[in-house]
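Justification of computing resources. Each target in the renewal requires a structure prediction run like the one illustrated here; the chain below, 242 residues long, is used simply to show the kind of job we budget for.
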Amino acid sequence: MFLAYKTDVGKKRKDNQDAVKASFIEDNVSISVVCDGMGGAKSGEVASDVAVTNVFNRIMSGYRSDFDSNSIRNLMLSAVHAANTIVYEKSKEDIDKNGMGTTCVAALVDNKHCYIVNVGDSRAYLLDENGISQITTDHTYVQALCDQGIITEEEKKTHAMKNVITRALGVDDDVEVDYFELEPTGNFTIVLCSDGLSNYCSEEFIYKTVYGNNLDTAAKELIDYANKQGGKDNITVALVAN
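Resulting structure tokens:
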């Protein structure tokens, strides 16, 4: 198993409100977490840092090698819910932090088994010999419009409200978390990223850059490309391949 991750402030922002942590838990078991914070006065930076740290630490310390899939599901969901509570409580401690929140996407890869949770519009993709597919669904206003058939996939990319998130961690005292389980056959790579990457890198470019290539090099090339396209947002990616 191979692992790489990278984050960059981009070309336009003064602060990096993205956060990422990734590590091996044991041989052939890894955990990766990407968060993209929101809120003024550096509140987004606080939200993403608190969330990524708590989700990562809870999964790292809570995982056991004899866990079945249901135990892993419960571990990952409880980690995100606990982080939601912590961010929410912190938002009430300081008026400047009121309303802060963050997206969160996390992947635990155990050999051929992939367990993924997400809140918001940070994404998880699966890359294999058949191509690239988005695992997660964006929790955004434009995605809801698209699901209802009001706008097309193409219109979604340029819609004036494409950055409006409908679900985020830490905004309310509870949050709905999406959960996915996959067991790909053959060689595969899981890509986690913030919208600062997915808004500028097409699925085709991600696949061409990442699949079958050195992950450290691929992470750098993805971020460099997003910056060349304008880099108007913070850019973060985590990659894990079997």
